[in-house]
Design a protein that fits this description.
Elements (H helix, E strand, L loop, with lengths): L7 E8 L4 E8 L3 H6 L2 E8 L11 E2 L13 E10 L4 E5 L2 H14 L4
């Protein structure tokens, strides 16, 4: 398995609001976290763009460059997966990663 980095796009079995299934997600945990924990913190990516309208959602501009097959949006719906389970499919572009980090700051009690 490749070492995962913040901003990587993965596919993993994740719980959703209504059901658990394999879905794309973005790695939001740090290298330090990965070095000391057996899991990875991810946030869900969705193709349901019409529902991605809150201040903590973000429509990816470069979804193809990130390895995604369909237009997708970041949702600040966070979970963890065992580090060995996600399949790496790409990485967010710098402009999308900056916007994702901004949405995480809006949704979480961190600076």
């Amino acid at each position: 398995m490749a070492t995962l980095r913040p901003g990587d796009v993965v596919v993993a079995y994740l719980p959703g609001a209504q059901q658990a299934k394999r879905r794309p997600a973005v790695v939001v945990s740090t290298d330090l976290y990965h070095a000391t924990r057996p899991d990875v913190v991810v946030s869900v990516l969705t193709t349901q763009l019409g529902g991605a309208t809150t201040p903590t959602d973000y429509l990816l501009r470069d979804w193809r460059a990130a390895g995604l097959r369909f237009p997708s949006a970041f949702r600040a719906y966070i979970g963890t997966v065992v580090a060995a389970h996600p399949v790496l499919i790409g990485h967010l572009t710098d402009r999308d990663w900056v916007e994702v980090q901004a949405r995480l700051r809006l949704g979480l009690a961190v600076m």
